[in-house]
Specification:
Order of helices and strands: EHEEEEHE
Radius of gyration: 20 Å
Strand order of the largest sheet: 1-4-3-2
Number of helices: 2
Largest sheet: 4 strands, mixed
Strand content: 25-35%
Length: 140
């Protein structure tokens, strides 16, 4: 029986060019993809790919911090279940992911707003305020 350990979670920041090799190393170590997610913070995307070892309870996250126009290779050829995570990143945030094995073409979710969680240069600036906030609305 394997020894069960409780290590600290490891978050390792990598570059886009290291993504596929790093994912392959995780797979060769017997770790499974447990989650992948995106966040839009400070005009950049943070992509996190977390891997778990179900025997030792090791947990390691690969993190990419990229510009919004950076293309990322899909990991679906190495880890097929990533297809849903990557389609979600693409559809909800606008992350540019190349070569997803099954690309839902932004139809994974039934949403009215394109890329609702990513950058949108067409949204009004909340600092500018609205007419009703400035007293410009006429109720008369």
């Amino acid at each position: 029986m394997a020894k069960v350990i409780h290590p600290d979670e490891v978050i390792r920041e990598i570059g886009v060019g290291d993504l596929l090799a790093s994912v392959m190393k995780m797979k060769k170590r017997g770790m499974r993809l447990s989650q992948a997610c995106a966040a839009y913070i400070d005009d950049k995307f943070e992509l996190s790919y977390s891997f778990a070892d179900d025997v030792t309870y090791e947990y390691e996250t690969l993190r990419l911090v990229i510009d919004t126009d950076t293309e990322v290779p899909s990991i679906t050829e190495i880890v097929p279940p990533a297809v849903f995570y990557e389609n979600e990143m693409k559809e909800l945030f606008g992350v540019k992911i190349r070569m997803i094995s099954l690309d839902y073409k932004n139809k994974l979710y039934r949403i009215e707003v394109e890329q609702p969680l990513g950058p949108d240069k067409t949204k009004p600036d909340p600092a500018a305020g609205s007419a009703s906030e400035e007293g410009g609305e006429n109720h008369g």
